[in-house]
Amino acid sequence: MSMQKSDMVIVLLLVTICVAWITLRIRSWLEPPKGKLTIPFSDEIPQDEAVELLEGAGFDVIAAKTRIPIVIELGEIEEPLQSRLYIDYFVKKQDRYYLVKLARERKPMEWTGSSLRDALLPYQLLYPEAAGILYVDMYQQKIKKISFQIEVQL
């Protein structure tokens, strides 16, 4: 049986659509998702007391202070507001990544559920692949591991 010209056009059209669809799927797999931050890696890690404490506890420091800019738009204000979040370090231990926040004397942590949620949950939501957050208190030489488990009830 021989293909007629119209059959050949239909087959070529279907092949073109399949190739275009496959190309788009591969492209979307290769691109990092928009709005999702990836854990940074840096060769330049300053050697300070916090790094020594973390390394002494078996963590590999993979990145130092990271600034995350935030733009806030309010409907009635024409110019957007600017803010930022800082993460002091990113560390790795046994193939698990952690964000590190250092204790600040002027802003002590309240160890209640709502306070921890307000202070640290935004960081965990920015980096969902992280196993948790390490809160490092250099004054007491302690590292506290904090992880969030969110239960969604419908």
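The above is record 1. Record 2 follows with the same two-line structure.
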Amino acid sequence: MVTWFPSSKMCCKCHHIQSMPLSERMFVCETGCGNIRDRDENASINLRNVPLDKVRLA
């Protein structure tokens, strides 16, 4: 089981992972796939779709 999942740093459209400082509130995918979203919305989509063996449940 992975204890860290890059939900806010991973594109919910193409799954590219990129570095982002916490102060950056908009996710703009560096691959050019067209995904531009609020960082929290992007993270929530990723967490909704992640397999349960990849995250720890609270």
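The radius of gyration is 11 Å.
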